[in-house]
Amino acid sequence: MSVSQAFLQLDPRIQHYLWAEGWGALREVQERAIPVILPGDQDVIVAASTASGKTEAAFLPALTHLLQQPARGLIVYISPLKALINDQFERLGRLCENLDVPVWPWHGDVTATSKRKFLTKPHGVLLITPESLEATLCNRGTSVAGLFTRSTFFVVDELHAFIGSERGKQLQSLMHRIEVAIDRRVARVGLSATLGDMTLAARFLRSDGKAAIVDTPSAGGQLLIKVKGYEEPPKQDGSDGDGSEDHTDRATREVARHMFGVLRGSNNLIFPNSRQEVERYTHLLNELCEREMLPREFWPHHGNLSKEIRYETEAALKQRERPATAVCTSTLELGIDIGAVKSVAQIGTPPSVASLRQRLGRSGRREGEPAILRGYVIEDAIDDKASLQTRLRLGTVQTAATISLLLEQWFEPPTVGGAHYSTLVQQLLSAIAQYGGLRAGQAYALLCAHSGPFAEVSKDGFAELLRALGRQEILVQDHSGLLLHGRIGDKIVNHYSFYAAFSSDEEFRIVSGGKTLGTLPVSQMLMPGQRILFGGRTWEVQEIDDTLKTIHVLPAKAGAPPLFNGGGGRVHTRVRQRMREIYLQSSSLGYLDQEAQRFVDQGRATFRDLRMQDCLLLNQGSQAILLTWLGDAANEAIACLVMMRGINAAIGQLGVEIQKGGKQLEEIEDLLADIAIDDAPVVGEVLRNARNLERQKWDRLLSPTLLRETYATSNLDLDEAISWLRAFLGSDNCL
After folding, report:
1. Which among 544, 618, 652, 734 is least surrounded, fewest beta carbons within 10 Å?
2. Contact of 118 with 104, CB cutoff 8 Å
3. Nearest partner of 258 among 268, 246, 244, 245, judged by Cα
């Protein structure tokens, strides 16, 4: 092994282990990270591509630091997945055995005997999920300081998976609460393959944002990308028209046949965009295996499957005797050790540029092999009834925009803001359990004040939260002023589901005339009068039942269908702006096949015919489309501002869809000008009439004011929205 300065800084026993394992040299990320992490006196973010050696970049110096301490210390490794913990236990086991450092996996599947052994001697490496760490703090309050008093590092794996989420806010709070309990700062090390803005990522890791950054660019290996297009012919007349689908579309079968031809005989990952599509493509591909009298090669993997089925898929990928391909959701984006795969297939538009990069990082990991991305886009045929969405070929153009930005090494910046009152409810209840009760001032100081994890929450907001929880018997206050669990709060905290900061994904039932049409994941607020696209038809929302998670609809009257369909991820402004640039171009895109390029050319022709390059307000019959080319956070803010004026509006894939309601386009333009001129409203006020805002686990316990605030701060970008509207005032609009 070639010797370097970083190698010489490692403990001799670790050096000997690396020699024995046949390491030729440290990798670049390890060379750079070791001297930064080794002192243990600062926070560090290590960002590098998948399979670049990030785990060793953190643990080699962290273990060296641990071995240099006079008393046995503790490294706390926090993972978003139990499967990752199991992988790391195997990965670290051989190294740590040579160092006489115990490794303790801790999650729901680990035996009580193993956990008791750690509690007796809390040193070495603890591999734990946020939920198990929450349970430890909640249930072992008097011993928390003793358990973690020798902590030397918090190592957070897959950092990007936590940022901006409920689990991320929970994780921030747990690390902060441990530091408060032991009365000192513990160095935090974040590992990630996908981080768009290091400054924001550092602010997530700790609020002061002072983390050292080790950002190692990808090695620049060969990347092969091809996107194939498929056109779905018009639906035959005679369908039942209720939105149900009991047949497999022709284009879907063609995609399955092509994937079968190019993927069989090797290990791959296929990413459709929904669990339903995972099941459908797995069935179609294994049907082809049976027809060819081949062993099963295609395995499903998504969050609704049992852990036994998911483990079966992971085991099939790990073994090398037979080829195996997983058809999966984002569950296999993260760093579960499934070995190298030959290629990644993406069906439909990727959720984000960062997500696509994470998925692609699974391919091309063997020396000399390229990373391969196969994209598949399906578009409906254009006829007299084709929607604007179909004529613009929005799915294909958004896919092209995402790949274009991926090739430029741009990724969405992490979202670190938001009030997160739902997670604050959980952390407040957990902290009260940990300390056996807290006074209101103590609770605020612990969780919100100064550099606390909920620093965006004001004293007034915290007081309103306490009043709301008191009214619902979640909390009570004794005669001395101590906050304790109320009758309902006690039941919540003592239920096994309490420790997770997030709830299972919930979908709204779509009901028309008493008949259930299906379910739809809804990621934005809705109001009666708005229109949604479901099952190929346009429906008008009549009523939203938040309690029963039901949306009552009626068939919409004639008019252009909405571009919103309820699914997909939140789109960033940069992606939409790149889509507009593609429409304005005339050159071919080298990563598209002939059919996909034809789709883009058709979309460009529609774009030109409608003069969309000069148009900001597009007349579409009963609605006007405000062509903002902004991301969903700004578009939803504009829609809210419009609805404050009594006009129905919703976000779409091009901008904001405004129901004219008998108004002329000039009147809509005047209304937008009035919004731009007026002072910006208080963030929560824009949602005063909105419904179905509950997105996070404990939102149902919040007062209406706090619910609006937490939704707005997490989902709306008022600043970008108002800035765009003010620029709109000075433009020539297409009427």
Report:
1. 734
2. yes
3. 268
SS3 assignment, position 136: helix
CB-based contacts of 628: which residues, under 8 Å, 6+ apart? 576, 616, 634, 635, 638, 654, 655, 656, 724
Whether pLDDT at 586 is above 80: yes
The SS3 of residue 714 is: helix
Six token digits for residue 407: 């090739």
Q: Please report, as a single letter, which amino acid is at residue 319.
A: Q
Q: Which residues pair with 533 in a beta bridge?
A: 538
**CA-based torsion, 691, 697, 701, 703: positive or negative:** negative
> Does residue 419 sit in helix, strand or coil?
coil
pLDDT for 84 equals 81
pLDDT confidence of 51, banded at 50, 70, 90? Answer: low
Residues with Cβ within 8 Å of residue 117, at least 6 apart in sequence = 104
Rounded-to-integer distance, Cα 47 and Cα 218, Å: 10
Q: For the chain, which residues make up each domain, given as ranges?
A: 5-215, 223-238+249-383, 508-569+614-729
Q: Which helix (H) or strand (E) holds 649?
A: strand 649-651
Q: Give the C-alpha separation, 10 to 25, whole Å.
A: 13
The architecture in CATH of the region 223-238+249-383 reads 3-Layer(aba) Sandwich (3.40)
> Beta strand 482-485 with 298-301: parallel, antiparallel or unpaired?
unpaired
For CA atoms 201, 204, 205, 211, give the dihedral sign: positive
Tell me if residue 91 falls in helix, strand or coil: helix
Dump pLDDT digits (tens) for 179-207.
Answer: 999 999 999 999 987 677 788 889 999 99
Same topology for domains 5-215 and 223-238+249-383, yes or no?
A: yes
Rounded to the nearest 10 degrees, how much is the dihedral formed by the CA atoms of 8, 13, 17, 18? -10
CA distance 2 to 447: 48
- Residue for token pair 């779905």: 232
* ∠ Cα 32 35 41 (to 5°): 125
Neighbours of 227 (CB within 10 A): 23
* 8 Å CB contact between 285 and 327: yes
Compute the distance between CA of residue 323 and CA of residue 362 in angstroms, rounded to an integer. 16
Residue 561 has pLDDT above 90, yes or no: no
Angstrom CA distances, 535 to 228, 538, 596, 653, stand at 24, 8, 24, 18
Q: CA-to-CA distance for 264 and 261, rounded, in angstroms? A: 6
Strand partners, 126: 76, 104
User: Which segment of 415-419, 459-463, 642-646, 723-727 scores lowest on mean pLDDT?
Assistant: 415-419
Are 483 and 432 contacting, i.e. CB atoms less than 8 angstroms apart? yes
Which residue is it, tokens 């069935």? 283
Question: Do 193 and 54 touch, CB atoms closer than 8 A?
Answer: yes
* 492-498: average pLDDT: 92
The CATH T-level fold of domain 5-215 is: Rossmann fold (3.40.50)
For 462-482, b where at least 16 C-beta lie within 10 A, e where not — what string?
bebbbebbeeeebbeeeeeeb
Answer yes or no: are the C-beta atoms of 72 and 91 closer than 8 Å: no
Backbone angles phi, psi at 142, to 5 degrees: -70, -20
Distance (Å, whole) CA 163 – CA 457? 18
Q: Is the pLDDT of residue 557 over 80?
A: no
Does pLDDT of 90 surpass 80? Answer: yes
User: What is the C-alpha to C-alpha distance for residues 216 and 433, in angstroms, rounded to an integer?
Assistant: 42
Could you give the strand order of the β-sheet that contains 438-439, starting from the edge strand earlier in sequence? 438-439, 482-485, 475-477
Task: Report the helix count and the strand count for the chain, using DSSP H and E.
Answer: 27, 25
Q: How many other C-beta atoms can be found within 10 angstroms of the C-beta atom of residue 19? A: 11
* H or E stretch at 643: helix 632-643
pLDDT band at 539 (very low <50, low <70, confident <90, very high): confident
Report the phi/psi class of residue 716: left, alpha or beta, with left for phi > 0 and alpha for psi in -120 to 50.
Answer: beta
Give the closest residue to 419 by CA, choosing from 123, 192, 698, 96: 698
Backbone angles phi, psi at 270, to 5 degrees: -115, 125
